[in-house]
Structure prediction request, 455 residues.
Amino acid sequence: MKVSKRLISVLLAVLMVVSGLVVYGVTASAAGEKLAKYYVNNPKGQVGVQKTITIDGKADDWTEDMKIAQSGAWDIANNWKGGHENCVLDLTGLFACWDESNLYIGWQMVNTTDTWADREGDGPLSDGGRVLNVPLVVALSVDKSLPAMTGKVKNGNFIWQESSKGGITFDGTHVDHMFFMSGQPGQGEPAMFTAADKDGNVDYDTSCKLFKDIGVSYKVAETNICKEIWGLSGSKSPSDVYSDTANWVDFKTYNKGKRTHKISYDSFFEMSIPLKALGINASQIKSKGIGAMVIATRGESGIDCIPFDGNAMLDNAKKSYSKDSSTSAEKEDIDKISVPLAYIGKTSGSSSQEDEPPGGEGETEPDTETTTDESTEPTTTEPPTEPPTTLPSFQLGDVNRDKIISVKDATDIQKHLAKLIELDEEQLLLADYFSDGIVNIKDATKIQRVLAHLE
Prediction:
């Protein structure tokens, strides 16, 4: 049966309105919890690249297409309490590569206090604007069948801590490998920890392996490889990390402070981990993916992480540190990290965060405006509406797996985003119509436009 193009346009417009209502519902229900658009997991669907990196403290072989997570600058507790402490542990970018022998992790830290502090570079403290001998942590999820780590030793203390009063733990976020190291390469005894019992606790014997024994290496370069450094300027509240309309600036070009930012005071860390230490090979990275996160600490507790967890890193931002009331309690509290990790090699299939970082060249939302003016309709060459294509097997777009791509598939995506239904892993892959590693309203809209012969 032939259906006029005008009717198709009307149907499409109705679908767009429904889509808008669904998206609005998701946003409203997540109010106060969804981070600003400057926080992105796997931007543009990036999962790292297959490449060999030389760990030499130069960072010249790392590029933007290796970025698997983006975070905001000047979004740590120091901003709201303890500004006299230098901010050099501010995580803004997470990068990844791999080859046949190694996994490579890179992370960018910035020191934007130089834009407002009285002294150039070192800012409020005379530490030269550099990262000191404090613990940094790389957390990986290599195999979800392994016990999820608690971040604790069997005796109840946190790893590298003498008590259970402050440290890093996980709430629903699966981590099975944790790498602890000093912010100053060459200091201390950096080590990899895995679970020593079924509960995910570790020990300093069987589940602790020193970097020097398993071939892990890392170094730091005094530079910034990111194209942009989006961060908060003049913020009055930690809640600004959830607001797109807060005063976000690009510190790479910001010129309204006391001086412009110098990237020579930023720190880029690069790390290589032998795949044999993880018990995997390169093909498994691409077929299953690895989750990753980096956590920065002041020694007792986390103060920043990427991907960013505002609930964990800012819940005690304005409370007083027990040893110094002029600084933040974030340095000593228990951080329960619950956000999804960024993925290497292959994404998990969906994300609640924006899929395109600010300043990127992402595709804009399709124009949903239609016309019903009869004068614009052809009278003799009107194309028929073809029935949905029956597929020989499941294909991209066939979300409900009925071997027909139809409006039902777009609707299922909308219902999934509104949390009315839950798509399984295979359905998430079929729903990713843009093949960018993220399922969002753009995929549903694309299917609708194709069905309506608008694309």
